[in-house]
Amino acid sequence: MAESICRALRDGALEGEHAPALTIKDSIASPFGFHVFCHVLSQLSSFILAGKSQSGGLVVVSFSRSPSFYLELLKNKGIDVVSSDKRIQILDCYSDPLGWKDRLIEAGNFTALSHEASNSSTANVLKDVKHMDKLYNSIVERGKGLIGGGKNRFSVAIDSVDEMSRHASTSSVAGLLSNLRSHDQVSSIFWLLHSDLHEARVAAVLEYLSSMVTSLEPLHQPANGHRGDLENLSLIEHNLKKGKFHVRIKRRNGRVRVMSEEVHIEQSGISFTSLSSEGAINQGLVPKVQFSLELSEKERIDRANVVLPFEHQGNGKPIQIYDGRRSLADSKHERQVAATEKVQTNEDSGGGEIIYFRDSDDEMPDSDEDPDDDLDI
Amino acid sequence: MAAAKTRTSSFSRNISAAAPSQGPGLKCGPNGTVFLSSGISDLDKILGGGFPLGSLVMVMEDAEAPHHMLLLRNFMSQGLVHNQPLLYASPAIDPRGFLGTLPSPAASKDEKSHKHDPDQEKGLRIAWQYKKYFGESQLNFDGQRDGKHEYSNEFDLRKPLERHFLSAQRVDCVSIQDSPNLSALQDRSATFLSQYPRNDGSISCAGRIAIQSFSAPQCAYSNMEWDMLSFIRSLKSMVRSSNAVALITFPPSLLSPSFCKRWQHMADTLLSVKAIPDEDKELSQLLTGYQDMVGFLNVHKVARINTQVPVILDATTFSIKLQKRRFLVLECLNQAPVDGSSGTSYGTSGSCSGSSKTGNLDF
């Protein structure tokens, strides 16, 4: 459910806990990751500006789109970044990530180009993305600049971890993300990943580091690989408009909540609906189970109430020997198919009873060899 | 010690003196092994006494759940409570911060678990024909639990450990995030372990090493798989010749499958933790007590030093529950009672013959 994810990001981190982190993962078969990212971004921004969230500001680290794109996007959603109390800052890692323009100018190869009319108040060009610690420092600096000091927190949105992984090793990217998560002033963080651009390990690393993982999958898998097939073409077309949205949320108590939704891409944006068909989400995790040989408290009390044979002798009452043929008081005890083994007791107005079924009724009574003769129940 | 030493084989080590009193933190076991407690009494019972001195315990984490932290916390707290020095390494920048989350032993001792040891039932009731001719002779077993309580404490996860246990002489912390290779950690471990050499005399003190998330991705060495493997191997050999136990947790999903297998072979005792899905109807129908469970613990391998006889456990999967959200208990998985009217449940649960998860957890 997209709402629960946005709510989790809005609520942020508890004291002494790492900030919630969301990974949005997609692939070529269902390429809506960026739409989802924008959706989450706009939701979180509106929460922040309305003052409903734990974080007081948002730093957008943009690698794959120019900052003006985000300004446009937020403006379309009704959020005017420039005048919004400077709650949203965009760290521009898109225009000149490796600092080439400066180096070219230095080398004197061409005259300085006129800068784009960028909103210098909201965008800040980062020229050295190879060093993750510098990136970390810039993000933290921007964030602190947004919210001031003290107990306030800010959120971080990373456009695309793919670009980060291009420039730096996986362990330094992982270090950056985990340091951001454990920073006292970061409230929540989310990022986008295109899983087919990397080895499986990178996706595994990012899933390890995040507390919520959403993945996008196509609704219909094409039957076989032939792309040219008409049926497959229409399926692929279908897949470009709709998809399945899976969410795995790691809860604080250690359980994992698994949810699924359908996602539709329309002109106006993205919408989430519940799945039309029930998908089987079970993991097939069936461990070796045993039968319970323990007794619960109630069962133990019942067992203690049973008067065993020969125990009641010597009470002054006449001793009756049971020969197994007279039926005892009706038992309300149903024979259950389950193999929970209990001593055969019956809860019967405070006292326990023993239910004894004689082996066979055919034998003549009072035969010499009858071992049950002195049964006393 | 109250534990009865049963002779399981005709070869038994000649122990010259009666078991030397080593204090509450150590317990003698068969074949000359000495155990220390894992901090979880259920786990000690499952493993046959605890972690043997000189063994390497490895815990495979689940990326989706923090249960390995519960094991780590109990392990570390138990060591501190028994005055066993601790070396703790973690990928956090400030590992000392984690010490503040260590649990404290539970105060009241009437928080006993509901499970009785069936052999020690008090007042065994016997229906005996000639009982009426004799007087009542009560056979009361005195619970021999007092000795056990000292060896393994119940930890209250909501109460932090008192400050005086965390003094610098007892706890040494190392951060492994920024070190480019493992030589620093190896040196620290070597100096730590050299303080507890093993010789045939009595054991004065035992040490514990706890390494959290050894192959965590933010560590600079995390893609140097051969180096990590050789570190584990050298740690294992150092631990073997000293009176210490090393506990390493690692996320197997981040390792390549062949290395994952190699690491599993390195361990003397191998455990793994697993997350469980929330509100899963199938599991709640299959298992009793599903609501209280937070995860599963699998015991893949139990350390057997000094003996060739393997341990074959009745069950290898246990559920992790937090009683009253405070006390960690491990329970066997029990099948929920089946409704007699529907006869189909045995069909669907037919897959319960295999062990829990496939892939790199199969051993």
Greatest contact between two chains: A-B, 53 and 66 residues
Number of E strands of chain B: 14
Order of helices and strands of chain A: HEHEHEHEHEHHEHEHEEEH
Q: Can you write the helix and strand succession of chain B as a string?
A: EEHEEHEHEHEEHEHEHEHEEEH
Which geometry of chain B do the CA atoms define?
globular
CATH class of the largest domain in chain A: Alpha Beta
Order the strands across the largest sheet of chain A as they lie in space: 4-3-2-5-6-1-7-8-9-10
The class by helix and strand makeup of chain A works out as alpha/beta
Low-confidence stretches of chain B: 110-121, 136-148, 342-363
Question: Helix fraction of chain A?
Answer: 25-40%
Averaged pLDDT of chain A: 74
* Helix segment tally of chain B: 9
Approximate strand percentage of chain A:
15-25%
The CA-CA distance between the termini of chain A, in Å, is: 62 Å
- Order of strands across the main sheet of chain B: 8-5-9-10-4-11-12-13-14
User: What percent of residues of chain B are in strands?
Assistant: 15-25%
The gyration radius over C-alpha positions of chain B equals 22 Å
- How many β-strand runs of chain A? 10
Gyration radius of chain A (Cα, Å) is 34 Å
> Biggest sheet of chain A, in brief?
10 strands, mixed
Terminal-residue CA separation of chain B: 34 Å
Pathway (chain A): tRNA modification; 5-methoxycarbonylmethyl-2-thiouridine-tRNA biosynthesis
Pfam families (chain A): Elong_Iki1
Protein name (chain A): Elongator complex protein 5
Family (chain A): Belongs to the ELP5 family.
